[in-house]
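Pipeline run #58 for the internal structure catalog. This entry was flagged by the ingest filter as a single-chain record with no existing model, so it goes straight to prediction. Upstream metadata was stripped on purpose; only the residue string is passed forward. Reviewer on rotation: M.T. Logging verbosity set to normal.
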Amino acid sequence: MTLQKFELKNKVAVITGGGGLLGSMHAEAIAEAGGIPLLWDIYPESATKKAKEIAEHYKTKASAFQIDITNELEIKEVVAEILENYGTIDILINNAANNPKMENNVDVPWSRLENFPLEQWQADINVGLTGAFLCSKVIGSEMQKRKKGVIVNIASDLAVIAPDQRIYKKENTSPEKQAVKPVTYSVVKSGLVGLTKYLATYWSEDGIRVNAISPGGVFNNQPEDFVKKLTHLIPMGRMAHKDEYKGAIVFLCSDASSYMTGQNLIVDGGRTCW
């Protein structure tokens, strides 16, 4: 009986940023639990390829949609198309975000707070936070009509702690040119936790549960020096494998977490304990 609560049989799940590293893993997790993942991405190539792979491997109706989640009209049009073809949207995973890979860069003074461009600030906020708001607004309103639904916001361990900028430092680079994790990343991820709590209480009487997950860093062939510095900050002594958040996603999206809402589930190898 308990294991059955983790099933997502025929549940339709929208995943923004579905073509990315974690987005594609979230889509696999939905499919593995019996659901139907719909991968939204502004860049259709990777999302389309992944959706096809999932559809063939898991024998599900996975599909991809090219969409700009900062455009409310586009969201409404795609949602209408999905409702016509699938009949429902049961799950929304707000995963899309701008995330520059600072650990691979040298001489990126623009990332420093003193130099951070307003245009970059607005672009990052638009995708990571405004996009999540708009998707929640449109899809959540549809869920409200049916008095049932789940929204999961993908935050970060950097929604709970500040970035340790020391792990990005490069030797033989002057201080003013050292790369840092941009301010927008922390602001967006912290904002998603706030959005989670707001939506959870706003729709608490409408059968809609809203939670966040704060994952730690995922190993993706980053430079050895960066990995060494970061893992030194993690009690488990390593970065996450890309598929290690699947269980948490299924838990939050399924009835296994039926009495959980407004929470931020931290899965970071223990980093935020220190």
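catalog note: Residues 10 and 262 are 25 Å apart (CA to CA).
catalog note: The helical segments are 21-32, 44-58, 72-86, 118-146, 183-202, 224-231, 246-253.
status: ready for reviewer M.T.
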